[in-house]
Amino acid sequence: MIRRPLIATILACSGLGVAACGGTAGQAVAGGATTGQVAASAPAAPQSRTAAAGTGKVSERATTAPTGPVGKPLAGKVIVVDPGHNGGNFKRPEVINKPVNVLTKRKPCDTTGTETNSGYTEAAFTWDVSTRLAKLLRAEGATVKLTRDSNSGVGPCITERAAIGNKAKADAVISIHGDGAPASGHGFHIIMPKKINGPVDPVVNDSRRLGIAVRNAFRSGTGQSYSTYIGKNALDFRNDLGGLNLSSVPKVFIEVGNMRNAGDAAKMKNPQFRQKAAAALAKGITTYVS
Question: CA-CA distances (angstroms) from residue 75 to 78, 175, 207, 224, 242?
C-alpha cells in the first residue's frame, strides 16, 4: 500500500497507521533465473563470402547465429519483481522506522503494509502474486530477480529496492502492492514517477509506457475496475516514493486493489484471481519490453 499523506492520516486515525505504505519492502536478495538454452544440435552459423577491401580477394567470415531460445519472447531481458513489504517487518520497528533519503523527502525505511479485515496481509498477497509472476516470466525466457526471497524476513529499505533494479540494469521493474484506502473505494491503479531532477528523470517517459502497458493488460486480463478513489483512468503520478525516485531503470508500482474494500478483498484472497493477476502483469511487461 502506497498512500498519500491525507489517506495515511485517515488510516492512522482508524488505527491502521502502522499499515500506511511509504515504499516497498522485502528481504534483500536477487533470485536469479535461468533462461532456456539453444539445443546442442542447432546448426552451425552460416558462412558468408565477402571481398576483402582493396585486394579483390574473397574472404570467409562467420555470421552471428541467433542465441535466444526459440519461442521465448523475453530471452535476454532482465525483469525485477518487487513484492511490497515483508512478513517480518512488524517484528523490527527499529529497522523499518529508520528514516532514509528519497531525494524529495525523508521517509521510513519500510512499513508493515495493510491487510484485509479478516487479517490477510499485504505482504503475503504481494509475495504470492510476485512468485507467480516470476514463474511466468521465467517460462518466457526472462532473467527474473526478486527484491526479497521469502515472506518471513525484514526489509529491505525502499532505497535498497531501487538499488537492486539499478544494479541489475533491468529492462523493467514492477513493485506489487495492495492498498489500504477507505473501504468505500475500490479498483486498481498504477503509480508512475515524475521528474525530480534526479536519477529517475531519464526514464520517466519509459516508465509511463510501461505503466500504460501494464494498466491495459491488467484490466483486460482480470476484469478489475479502475480505481474509484485515486488517479485518472487508473494512472497516478508521484514524486514522493523512494522506489521510483531512486530508480534509473523503467519502474512502476501497481496497487492491485483496496484490501479494505470487501469486494476487492474477496478477489485478492482468491488464489485464482492472484494467478490471473500474475498472468496479466506478465502480459503487460512482455508488451512493453518486446
Answer: 9, 21, 21, 29, 29
Coil vs helix vs strand at 123: helix
CA dihedral 200, 201, 203, 208 (to 10 degrees): 100
In order of 155, 207, 282, 290, the CA distances from 142 in angstroms are 25, 19, 11, 11
CA 3 and chain centroid, separation:
17
Q: How far apart are CA 253 and CA 177, in angstroms?
A: 7
pLDDT (0 to 100) of residue 182 = 98
What pLDDT sits at residue 159?
98
CA triple 95-96-102, angle to 5 deg:
115
Choice among 115, 140, 160, 255 that is catalytic: 255
Tell me: the pLDDT tens digits for 162-201? 999 999 999 999 999 999 999 999 999 999 999 999 999 9
**Residue 216: strand, helix, or coil:** helix
C-alpha to C-alpha distance for 133 and 76, rounded to whole angstroms = 17
Measured on CA atoms in the order 12, 14, 18, 24, is the torsion positive or negative?
negative
Q: Which DSSP state fits 45?
A: P
Which parts of the chain sit beneath pLDDT 70? Answer: 1-70
The whole-number pLDDT of residue 156 equals: 97
Predicted confidence at residue 165, as pLDDT, reads: 98
Tell me the torsion sign for CA atoms 124, 125, 128, 133: negative
The yes-or-no answer on residue 140 being catalytic is: no
Contacts of 263 (CB under 8 A, 6+ apart): 186
Of 217, 197, 216, 195, nearest in space to 207 by CA: 195
